[in-house]
Amino acid sequence: MNSKNPVVRTVTLILFWLVVAVVLFYVLFPFYWAIKTSLTSSARLSAEALQWFPSVASFQNFVDVFITAPFGRNLLNSVVVATGTVLLSLLLSVLAAYALGKFRFQGKTILMYLILAVSVFPQIAVLSGLYTMIQTFGLYNSWGGLILSYMIFTLPFTVWTLTAFVREIPTELEEAAYVDGASPLQTLFQVLLPVMTPALVTTGLLAFINAWNEFLFALTFTTDAAAATVPPAIANFTGASQYESPFGLTMAASVIVTVPLILLVLIFQRNIVSGLTAGAVKG
To answer: What's in the keyword line of the UniProt record (predicted)?
Structure first.
């Protein structure tokens, strides 16, 4: 009865869009402020810190990011490490998810809970052991050392997520493949893997974002500026003097590293929605 009342409907609509506006402001304002700060020159930054728009837009901070530090190399390191981490994690997690989702064996439930426990384990707790292992293997200041350390938190996440998706794939697909004489691996890679594409894209993108933004391991396992990834590189920016804080450089670098993530989400948004909803609905 109340839903048909025009006054109630109008008030509800106003409240709805008010909540949407507040959420959008909360989400987008930090990124807008980073863009605004990055377009303000260092000389004007103090005087215009609280202004909504820079009086004179300048791209000098974006230029200085690549001049004052090996930021191009840091970007390459982040791309290679994050991509390598995701590819290895997805390859291993597809095999593990197929076994955990479609086969019955003793101790499977305990194994799943162990994977879940590892995924929520604090990074600092394993830092000393990882440091010793990476030093022993000679992987310090290398892509391999970072990929190995990043897989500690990406692999449990991808295994757990893909396992939930694999469980919902109809068993008839496997049975038809077995009737045609396919082996378990052929069934996985030729029959089930195409069906898993939305889940792979979603899981891979989330793992990529986590690896791209990782700070603690990257800071610990790299001392050479040219070997560092983007997060520690940004943290190590310095001003022209010890009394100057490089806010402009930091914001410019933050904008540069955020844009690729936004583009990836926009490109794969349909797959992301399909991947997030597919595992929640019984097939």
So the answer is: Cell membrane, Membrane, Transmembrane, Transmembrane helix, Transport
CB 145 within 8 A of CB 221: yes
* Cβ atoms of 195 and 73 closer than 8 Å: no
Residue pair 248/61 in contact by the 8 Å Cβ criterion: yes
- Pair 18, 107 in one domain: no
Task: Mention every residue, 6+ apart, whose C-beta is less than 8 A from residue 213.
Answer: 231
* Calculated CA dihedral for residues 76, 86, 224, 248, nearest 10 degrees: 60
Residue 167 shares a structural domain with residue 201:
yes
Report yes or no: 248 and 45 within 8 Å, Cβ to Cβ. yes
Q: At what angle do helices 143-167 and 123-136 cross, to 10 degrees?
A: 130
Query: Based on the domain organization, do 110 and 219 belong to the same domain?
Result: yes
Smallest Cα–Cα separation from 198: which of 266, 270, 267, 264? 270
63-108 pLDDT, tens per residue? 888 888 788 899 999 999 999 999 999 999 998 888 888 878 787 7
pTM: 0.80
Instruction: Give the residue from 256, 261, 215, 211 showing the smallest Cα distance to 236.
Output: 215
The angle that helices 197-213 and 269-278 make with each other, rounded to 10 degrees, is 110
Structure tokens at 273: 């929605």
- Cβ-proximal residues to 122 (8 Å cutoff; 6+ apart), any chain: none
Give, in order, the Cα–Cα distances in Å from 131 to each of 105, 141, 186, 227, 233.
35, 11, 39, 16, 20
pLDDT digits (tens, 9 = 90+) for 250-266: 888 888 888 888 888 88
- Which amino acid, 116? L
